[in-house]
Design brief:
By secondary structure, this protein is an alpha/beta fold. It is built from nine helices and five strands, in the order H-E-H-E-H-H-E-H-E-H-H-E-H-H. Strands 2-3-1-4-5 form a five-stranded parallel beta sheet. The chain is globular, with a radius of gyration of 17 Å. Bound molecules: adenosine-5'-triphosphate (ATP), (3R,4S,5R)-3,4,5-trihydroxycyclohex-1-ENE-1-carboxylic acid and magnesium ion. Adenosine-5'-triphosphate (ATP) binds next to helix 2, helix 6 and helix 9.
Length: about 210
């Protein structure tokens, strides 16, 4: 992991890394590991929004000001974060929906953590869905989370697919001969993210080089 992180640092020269993906896809968990390995700062856009809102939590912001105001604050947070260097940012699950946010996301390198919906539903119900207003509170359980996440995944899939790099846990599990994606540790996923970012950066450099290089 350390060696790959050093290789990537040389390629991207401080460019910001945005992790995108569904609620529960591991953006915060994997993002912290990546930031540590790269010696970058880790920032969570939901936390920045909570600061803008004077310390109200995400569910409190949704309740008090409705989703529309939350989305405005989210765009403001992404704009601010996109001007920072040497940061790994865990974005909110809905950050990809508004086209204006892509102006900010394109200032960095975007990585989609693509996790199958049943795994997302297991993860979010294990920790409780109370902090995730779009999942309808804490009382629904796995089946409600699965139904809501499936609908959101279907709606947002094309937007997530705009990422510069996609790390599919389904594909990673296959390539590592894991029987189930629950066997993939956050470290194994972070290593794969680094690997794919290095490939992306090298390809980009090659494509931008003058002809004959
Ligand atoms: N590879 C993994 N294996 C098992 N559990 C995981 C893995 N990655 C993350 N988790 C767990 O899944 C839950 C969701 O992870 P995390 O909070 O990192 O996701 P997120 O994408 O930041 O979600 P949100 O968009 O809601 O902030 C956490 O409880 C975390 O511990
Ligand atoms: O998927 C979403 O739209 C959201 C995900 C969370 O990270 C928060 O940004 C908020 O709960 C909305
Ligand atoms: Mg998170």
């Amino acid at each position: 992991m350390q060696r790959k992180a050093q290789e990537l640092k040389q390629e991207i020269e401080g460019t910001c890394i945005f992790l995108i993906g569904m609620m529960g896809s591991g953006k915060s968990t994997v993002g912290r590991l990546l930031a540590e390995a790269l010696e970058y700062q880790f920032l969570d856009s939901d936390t920045v929004i909570e600061t803008y809102a004077g310390g109200l939590s995400v569910p409190e912001i949704f309740k008090k000001w409705k989703e529309e105001r939350f989305r405005e604050l989210e765009s403001q947070a992404l704009q601010e974060l996109s001007s920072a260097g040497e940061v790994v940012v865990a974005t909110g699950g809905g950050a990809v929906v508004q086209p204006r946010n892509w102006v900010y996301l394109r200032n960095g390198i975007t990585v989609w953590l693509d996790v199958p919906v049943p795994a997302l539903a297991s993860r979010v119900t294990a920790v409780g869905t109370g902090s995730r207003p779009l999942l309808g509170g804490d009382c629904g359980g796995y089946d409600q989370a699965l139904a809501r996440l499936s609908k959101i995944y279907e709606e947002r899939g094309p937007a997530y697919a705009n990422a510069d790099v996609t790390v599919s846990l389904q594909n990673l599990a296959l390539s590592l001969a894991c029987e189930d994606i629950s066997e993939l540790t956050p470290t194994a996923i972070a290593v794969q993210v680094l690997e794919e970012l290095i490939q992306h950066a090298r390809l980009n450099k090659y494509l931008r080089a003058p002809v004959g290089y």
